[in-house]
Design goal:
By secondary structure, the chain is mainly α. It has one domain (about 20-270). The protein contains eleven helices and no strands. Mean pLDDT is about 85; it is low at about 1-5. It is found in: Cell membrane; Membrane. Belongs to the ABC-2 integral membrane protein family.
């Protein structure tokens, strides 16, 4: 029997259609996993909501916001940004699992667009991020949180959140292709938590020691959290440093820098996976 091999399209438009079609096929594979294993998706959503409720109700009474304001309105944007950063664990685990099991090599042996696996992973994880944001927004509204700068400000805030998640996607894809052992998965999970808490997600950097506050202010998570607090019209932590005075700009520059570094590395790692 002779195998039928489909020649790749030659024109740029045809190649784009080919990549989008194959990328959607890979995305549907992940959506099928959600349908067949819904508890995994639900557990992820519930964990994010649990973190928000725990800090809002258990610890919120002991927290204060520099300059005044409701701590829960300070907290919700921070948790929204935190979940975008923690999403790197989902991406890393999915990529490393597929690579370790040979699924990625199987994809590369098929007559499909070279970018389809990466594109499909990005689409699926961004859809997951949208669901997570929706669940957190509903929980925040139930807690009494709200935005005050209208629909345009809220739309810009959610765009920055997804932009941060996209940057974390490239980082997760690259790490998943390079580090494929179960020990690496555990090590990444251990490292992500300090990155998340060493930020302005839960408390103002002004409450930290000087050197630690400087690290927290320049944290990409802090940049997005501070920017969306401003866009939502929620209370912020103030300060007179450059990150505190230019949060929206920094919230754009950090994801751009991370994408510029890790997007090429992720693509190269995928191409050289079996060499």
């Amino acid at each position: 029997m002779t195998a039928l091999i489909t020649a790749p399209p030659r024109t740029p438009l045809a190649r784009l259609r080919w990549a989008l079609a194959d990328g959607w096929t890979v995305t549907r594979r992940d959506l099928t996993h959600w349908r067949n294993q819904p508890l995994q998706l639900v557990a992820g959503l519930l964990f994010s909501v649990m973190v928000l409720l725990m800090f809002g109700f258990l610890f919120g009474g002991a927290m204060f916001v520099p300059g005044g304001g409701d701590y829960r309105e300070f907290l919700v944007p921070g948790v929204l940004a935190l979940t975008m950063v923690f999403g790197v664990e989902t991406t890393f685990t999915a990529i490393s699992t597929d690579a370790a099991r040979g699924v990625t090599d199987r994809f590369r042996s098929l007559p499909m667009a070279p970018s389809a696996v990466v594109l499909g992973r990005c689409t699926a994880d961004l859809l997951s991020a949208v669901l997570t944001l929706a669940a957190l927004v509903l929980a925040g509204l139930a807690m009494g949180w709200q935005w005050h700068n209208g629909v345009a400000g809220a739309f810009a805030a959610f765009a920055l959140l997804l932009f941060l998640r996209l940057a974390m996607l490239w980082l997760g894809i690259y790490l998943g292709l390079v580090l494929r052992s179960p020990e690496a998965v555990m090590a990444l999970q251990i490292l992500v938590w300090p990155l998340g808490f060493l930020s302005s997600a839960f408390v103002a950097p002004a409450t930290m020691p000087g050197w630690l506050a400087a690290v927290a202010e320049w944290n990409p998570l802090s940049a997005t959290a501070t920017a969306i607090r401003e866009l939502f019209g929620n209370p912020g932590w103030g300060g007179q440093s450059w990150p505190s005075e230019h949060p929206v700009l920094l919230a754009v520059l950090w994801p751009l820098a991370l994408t510029a570094v890790f997007c090429p590395l992720a693509i190269r790692g995928y191409r050289e996976l079996s060499r």
